[in-house]
Amino acid sequence: MTELLTVRGVETFYGSIQALKGIDIDVQSGEIVTLIGANGAGKSTLMMTICGSPQARRGQIIYDGQDITRMPTHEIMRRGIAQSPEGRRIFARMSVFENLQMGAALTDQKHFADDLEKVFALFPRLKERRDQRGGTLSGGEQQMLAIARALMSRPKLLLLDEPSLGLAPLIVAGIFNAIRELNRVEGLTVFLVEQNAYHALKLAHRGYVLVNGTVTMQGTGKELLAREEVKAAYLEGGRH
Question: Per the database record, which ranges form the ABC transporter domain (predicted)?
């Protein structure tokens, strides 16, 4: 496996408040890596820092052999990173089809029809809702659309920020199964930020635990699921 994403000593600030305190993380090509932690630990901040907004004040982010630490967001995205952000952020007034067109805007349009069929096969509900406005979809359908829109850009690295947030257990299981299939069949590399530690660690090849802006533990998904500190902090009563 080759190194696709390397985060070294990254420190991110909001004004004078330090949100990330020297983060070291590696994601190898073909892996699913998850970052778990409580609300406010800095998970989404790391995801946004990788995408260049906010930029890291210290440290380095290397993606596919290139230093992207100081690059603007649009340049980073052009290099094959796609994000399904926290809160989904779909285009509410646009149809499902139009949202997917927006996702494909940076790619060669000759692949559009094939890519559309792939995301419709992955999320059949979206095919049924193809002409429906994004804002009228259920929460689960909006999450599927956010992931599908990201996939339409043909990413090498898919960043998923809290894909299970606020969704019913059955919908969550379907979304995690889709992520597993993307990785297994397409070999897609996934970096997943999640509060639902049980589902995330079951899915991931490797994981990191973030506490107050600092990585406190790392290991395989199985190793972290078995650790007493992880069970006590994130899994007690949390298998939903």
Answer: 5-237
pLDDT value for 87: 64
CA distance 107 to 129: 24
Strand pairing category for 206-211 and 189-194: unpaired
pLDDT at 196: 87
Domain boundaries, the chain: 3-80+155-235, 90-154
The class that CATH gives domain 3-80+155-235 is: alpha beta
Quick check: 150 and 142 in contact, CB under 8 A? no
55-88 burial: b if 16+ Cβ within 10 Å, else e: bbeebebbbbeeebbebeeeebbeebbbbbbbeb
- Contact between 81 and 50 under an 8 Å Cβ cutoff? The reply is yes
Euclidean distance between the first and the last CA atom of the chain, given in angstroms as a whole number: 32
For the full predicted model, state whether its pTM sits above 0.85.
yes
DSSP code for 72: -
Residue in 147, 140, 205, 142 with CA at minimum distance from that of residue 173: 140
pLDDT, position 236: 62
CB atoms within 10 A of CB 26: 16
- Give the integer Cα–Cα distance in Å for 27 and 85: 19
Q: Which residues pair with 219 in a beta bridge?
A: 207
Alpha helices in the chain (DSSP H): 43-50, 73-78, 96-103, 112-122, 124-128, 139-151, 169-186, 197-203, 221-226, 228-230
Say what the pLDDT of residue 166 is. 86
